[in-house]
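#lab-general

N.A. 3:47 PM
ok so I finally got the sequence cleaned up, no stray characters, all 233 residues accounted for. can someone with queue access submit it? mine expired

B.Y. 3:52 PM
send it over

N.A. 3:53 PM
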Amino acid sequence: MSITLAQLRERSRERADMEESQFVDDTELNYYINSSIAELHDILVQSYGEDYYVEETTFTTVGGQESYELSTIFPNNDFYKLRALDAKLNGDDYFTLKPFNFNERNRFQHFGVWDYIGITNVRYRLVGNKLRLSPAPDSNIEVRVWYIPKSTELVDDTDTFDDINYYAEYVIVDAAIKMLNKEESDVSVLMAQKADLKRRIEESSKNRDAGEPESISDIYIENDDFFYGRTRS
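B.Y. 4:20 PM
back already:
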């Protein structure tokens, strides 16, 4: 189900017992709500973020170019955390790329080619606001990027927030705490409620596929490595 910004504002005022007060105006309360949404977003990302928020996009490399501005890969400016990278090689097949440690930034620059045999030695890393590939691609190659976007920002009253299993209650309670803090009122009861909500969210959000829990990843078979070779050199 979804809940609108106007509904979040109304319920936050009710929780803070400030329905008739404009001590915190709507603009300021909208800021509190978006801040609380961002906090909930981080809790879900840290607990099991790839299950809830993962998105994908693609971009095409340029032969000989190592670095790519994130703003060109994510024109909507919604990038928050990188989940994985795949390179499209050997026709329509995608191959998993591995990150390099920063102290190994020069190790692969002349060691590996961008084909389904050499992909075992292609690496990537986020460096500042750029994505760096090593070695540089030798042609135009489609790269699929799995990423976690930034939290939803609500602007208009009709903008909606995806209320996963009534997790919006966390946003409402946290926004009410912020309102009462400005008023210098007692927030101890709401703080206890927030702690209980956080614990519940952290415990219940860890595995959305309840029938098939996560298994330990085998890093050596991500690209069918018995055929293509090991991904670790």
